[in-house]
Amino acid sequence: MPQKIAVLAGDGIGPEIVAEAIKVLSFINTDMNLGLVFENALIGGAAYDAFGTPLPQTTLNLCKNADAVLLGAVGGPKWEPLAHAVRPERGLLGIRSELNLFSNLRPAILYPQLVDASTLKPEVVSGLDIMIVRELTGGIYFGQPRGVHVAENGERVGINTKIYSESEIRRIAHSAFKIAQKRHKKLCSVDKANVLEVTELWRSVMTEVGKDYPDVQLSHMYVDNAAMQLVRAPKQFDVIVTSNMFGDILSDIAAMLTGSIGMLPSASLDANAKGMYEPIHGSAPDIAGQGIANPLATILSVAMMLRYTFNQPEAAERIERAVNTALDSKVRTADIYSEGMIKVSTSGMGDAVLNALKG
Ligand code: NAD
Asked: Could you say which residues bind NAD(+) here (predicted)?
């Protein structure tokens, strides 16, 4: 049976970058006889304009029935005045929770051709290739009780709760260990076990699960030290696993080590490696419609999809090598352009990757 990909282009530059990713995926699908089929649906602001909701039932059904979801980006100033419940971003949160996508993978790779884009010294970041695995559906962003209330003394009090059950920790641990097995077999679990009891449990469950993966070297680090180490000596890490909020912050630090937001893909997986794949950047309304957005983060998201959901490492590597070849040929979209390079449009970059694949 063919395997289905739900394609949700979204808003802003979403349709422009997704078109290039589909161009690349269609080629590799035919060339390697992968048997993938695609189906498009609306999400975000585009879905709100058409149906009055950022996540129409038809879109959700398509995603539930698909093996993977490819997403561009959602949001933009046009929809900012809307009530929170119908904001474009709610569409994304809805898919994450409905599909139970609890494991968020954010690689930070520095391409040697773009070493100058980082604000850190080349010797600190050149060759950087780390993966942050962030727990995505639990922790302080969802814990109860939460809210702001007025205490007995009349003062307002704000509260959020960091809560993890053993099973939630166990499943993200398994996800992270399996990813480490596919990489350099080093996993660093980040917590704050010296202060927070919830992360004391996190550390102890990580250690327990680690016994099932004797080939992976597990270490533990406090989150404040991890933030410092990511900037001081990021190449010491292979895979980092951490809770929702710590991962939110650390993955942005890691992304910025590479200096180019248009280059970084991501994946959000369930327990069976079904996933949603998307660039880490947003809908970039400031450049939408101009044909200048960088499609490489979305193209690299497709490579992640082939690796993690469809278990096609060779196809994934072919795409990643083609991106490298395109960069070697000096083509650059505006966001990564520097003197002496050849400036290309969004579709020009997609074509360069496609030609490298064909070559
Ligand atoms: P953004 O990532 O869209 O843009 C930040 C800056 O990076 C902008 O200057 C933009 O032009 C540039 N940029 C981003 N992607 C690029 C690309 N592929 N090529 C070249 N330049 C690129 O973040 P923002 O401006 O804070 O948010 C804009 C909208 O996107 C908001 O509505 C926000 O809510 C939404 N957003 C969506 C997602 C998502 O869909 N997953 C993520 C973040 C933000």
From this structure: 76-89, 282-294
- Enter the pTM of the model: 0.92
Tell me the best of 42, 281, 286 to mutate to test the pocket of ligand 1, counting ligand atoms within 8 Å of each CB and taking the most: 281
Distance (Å, rounded) from C-alpha 258 to C-alpha 269?
Answer: 24
250 and 137 within one domain: yes
322-345 pLDDT, tens digit per residue, is: 999 999 999 999 999 989 999 999
Q: How far, in Å, from the CA of 183 to the mean position of ligand 1?
A: 29
Q: Which residue range(s) make up the domain with 233? A: 129-257
73: β partners: 10
H/E element, 94: helix 88-98
Q: Give the chain's domain count.
A: 2
CA atoms of 162 and 164, how far apart (whole Å): 7
CATH number for the domain that contains residue 219 = 3.40.718.10
Nearest CA to ligand 1 atom 1: 282
Q: Which residues are bridge partners to 304 per DSSP? A: none
Query: For residue 265, how far is its CA from the centre of ligand 1 (angstroms)?
Result: 13
